[in-house]
Amino acid sequence: MKVFEVPSAGAPAQEADHPTPELTGADVLVRVTNSGVCHSDVHCAEGYFDMGDAGKAPVESLGMAFPLVLGHEIVGEVIAAGPDASVQPGAEKYIVFPWIGCGECAACAEDRENSCTGARRNLSLQLNGGFSREVYVPHERYLIPVGDLDPSWAATLACSGVTSYSAVTKALTPEADRPIAVIGTGGVGLSAVALLKARGHKNIVAADVSEDSLKNAEAAGATATVLTTGEDPSGDIVKAGGGKLASAIDFVNNGVTSSTALGALGTGGKLVSVGLFGGQLQFPTTLVALQQLKIEGNFVGSLPELKELVELAKSTDLPQLPIVEKPLEADEVNAALKAIEERTVSGRTVLVAG
Known about the structure:
The protein has ten helices and 17 strands. By secondary structure, it is an alpha/beta fold.
């Protein structure tokens, strides 16, 4: 089957042919129709993650190996299924849940495969992803019907959507008028703004270094916006929200943004760390204790959370992040990754099969 793989760290994606896997059990083979491009694809293509003072962690340390077939925001049609699968090949479109665990650890047993402690099988990381004509999925349970949703937008729910949904769940407070900040309003942050609004929160502060991104956040439901290029971004966020934050969701998560978020939290506030931009957390440890602050990491979301999000999207008029559609070809994979790296794309690029 045809794939668009990154052969080595820093190299451009190129077209290649891989053998079609043999299907057993309830495995399925999905023809990719829509494949979103995520910032984490950029990190993986570079070949490392920034670990701050600990240096750069090569992707191989996370169980990955070049060549990599990236892309984990996948919508497609089943074209073949194993002997035990109940799903039949046909034109129905499915969102593919990509965050697949070992299936044996305690987290997997509780349907928290994104928190797997064993040998993970994430699509686009350990297994081939959606920058391809077809993608192998190790069980039909990871398919969620798209229904009447726009398939390009539905594809983004598998990463930017479920990541935002899970992070918002961690950040929400019963006090709907207390400010919650969303730091970084690219594709994933925009989803968080929209979901905070959809889930009833009334005080949403969007913070970013880009005025265009803040305009998108305002359209998605932010009640206040902050350009974080001033001398006191923490103070500017507090002022915009009308008081210290109940929580902050950091979709950048570098040394600057994490310190900014912590500095804006009120007593008992929570920082939800999501982004993978890297750096080192620097904040007075005494204040963490005195203000009873909480820091919680968020890696994408679980299969049940994605199902909840899809049902919410089908039943609620969720604001959709801007989508730019491009052909699913090697050149467009490279152009999309470059645009994300250079911050010249607003919203999400989705590659569409011809």
